[in-house]
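Quick review question:
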């Protein structure tokens, strides 16, 4: 009876504090786990589509390009003088290279979205310079959507140069965790690298999201 009456402002302060703390927690978890959340949504869609009778149909012949190549400008010399001749000229695999194939006058983002849809697979040339490029980080986010739709076999990840730990972002780590990568080394093991790269590019996809009409 001697206690002072409870101030309603205290209740409001407690409720608002708890609500704010919960909101911050949910936002933090969402930002850190957004890749996993998208994957769970994708798996749910796959299970739903399977029940509706969806199964794989697409192959390399359904696309204009066999693979879309993502690389930074610092690695252009290797891509154009080593990778491109070996894959296109020697193996007859048509690649989409943005310095050569993008449409003049279109924005870069529009070109990426357009030609990514025209490509069956995605080749990502990873290096320390690639990791430092904000634009390349954006492209990684874009191509991750392709993995969620078609599976890990859609990627050919090539580690051209070792990435420093300070430049290893969450996006790159998620990409490397999603599919195995090949390490390129001139002379030592180079023949084995090319055999593995070509086999990966020619490997069929295990797609489950295209409907039979």
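Suggested answer, residue by residue:
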């Amino acid at each position: 009876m001697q206690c002072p009456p409870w101030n309603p402002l205290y209740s409001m302060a407690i409720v608002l504090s708890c609500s704010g703390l919960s909101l911050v927690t949910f936002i933090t978890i969402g930002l850190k786990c957004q890749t996993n959340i998208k994957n769970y949504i994708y798996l749910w869609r796959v299970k739903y589509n399977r029940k509706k009778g969806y199964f794989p149909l697409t192959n390399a012949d359904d696309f204009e390009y066999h693979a879309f190549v993502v690389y930074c400008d610092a690695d252009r010399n290797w891509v154009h003088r080593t990778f491109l001749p070996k894959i296109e000229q020697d193996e007859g695999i048509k690649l989409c290279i943005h310095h050569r194939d993008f449409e003049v006058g279109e924005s870069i983002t529009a070109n990426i979205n357009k030609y990514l849809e025209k490509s069956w697979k995605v080749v990502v040339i990873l290096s320390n310079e690639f990791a430092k490029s904000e634009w390349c980080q954006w492209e990684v986010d874009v191509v991750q959507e392709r993995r969620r739709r078609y599976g890990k076999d859609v990627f050919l990840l090539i580690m051209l140069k070792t990435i420093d730990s300070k430049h290893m972002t969450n996006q790159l780590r998620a990409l490397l965790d999603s599919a195995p990568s090949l390490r390129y080394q001139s002379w030592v093991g180079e023949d084995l690298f090319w055999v593995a790269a070509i086999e990966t590019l020619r490997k069929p996809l295990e797609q489950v999201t295209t409907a039979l009409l």
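Why it works: Residues 208-213 have pLDDT under 50 and may be disordered. The two ends are 77 Å apart (CA to CA).
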